[in-house]
Design brief:
With 249 residues, the protein is of the alpha/beta class. The chain has one domain: Glycoside hydrolase/deacetylase (TIM Barrel), CATH 3.20.20. Helix content is 38%, strand content 18%. InterPro entries: DUF2334, Glyco_hydro/deAcase_b/a-brl.
């Protein structure tokens, strides 16, 4: 395995976003990103299960056959019928728009969704090593539940977490990502990612992470920065990989 790795992930993959995701995947391939992580939502916003769309599933399978990794990304991705605690309001109302599905979730509900997602992926012959919570938001208890259900790793915004029996280890690497919901968020994101990229290059970071959302490519300033960043990392000799390659089994 190459020493310096670039992990590019496409978030919020589901049938309703397929057109944008497919175009982003083609663009990344043209830039030289040979493989990515596909963060797939099994039942987006309680509207449509992925198994209801055979064409979508077939496309994902073809991506996986070429090296992409399928990763469970929540189950519904939303917080329907949930009452937020005061301590959760910032994360559920400002940081996200009621998307933090696994923040403050009950164990029984979490287990049911984690198991159901894994069964769904297995029925499609997709990888089930990774689980990534929507918004990277979860409570510490999730780190105990995931290996019990059979997941081998997860990630937070600042680290990759590997469940290596009998211990858990972390690789610290803050993910590039862009917030595109408003003009000020987009402007702040460009400044933040410029600063983060500079730090990654100066510190010769071995593992660099880039997380992309479907709407990122709608904004030329953001997409231009994404392109420049990824091409610069590749020119520095970083090798595109998926998180699953870090799992020792």
């Amino acid at each position: 395995m190459a020493e310096n790795l670039l992990f590019v992930t496409l978030h919020d993959v589901h049938p309703m976003n397929r057109k944008k995701i497919e175009k982003q995947r083609e663009t990344l391939a043209a830039w030289g990103v040979e493989k990515v992580g596909l963060l797939i939502i099994p039942f987006y916003h309680h509207k449509k299960s992925i198994v209801e769309d055979p064409s979508f599933c077939s496309w994902i399978s073809s991506c996986a056959s070429l090296g992409d990794e399928t990763i469970v990304h929540g189950f519904y991705h939303d917080r329907m019928d949930r009452t937020d605690k005061l301590s959760e309001l910032f994360w559920t109302r400002i940081y996200t728009q009621q998307e933090a599905e696994f923040l403050g979730i009950e164990k029984k509900v979490a287990f049911r969704r984690l198991v159901e997602a894994k069964k769904m992926f297995m029925s499609l012959r997709w990888s089930t090593r990774g689980f990534i919570a929507p918004g990277w938001l979860f409570d510490a208890s999730l780190l105990e539940w995931l290996p019990e259900v059979g997941y081998a790793y997860t990630v937070a915004i600042d680290r990759i977490i590997l469940f290596e029996n009998p211990s858990t280890s972390s690789i610290f690497s803050f993910s590039h990502c862009w917030s595109n919901r408003s003009a000020w968020r987009r402007a702040a994101s460009i400044v933040w990612n410029s600063w983060l990229k500079r730090g990654n290059i100066l510190s010769k970071k071995r593992y660099v992470r880039v997380g992309l959302h479907p709407e990122d490519s709608d904004y030329p300033a953001i997409w231009k920065q994404v392109e420049k960043s990824i091409k610069d990392f590749l020119e520095l000799g970083m090798h595109p990989e998926t998180y699953g390659s870090l799992v020792k089994s």
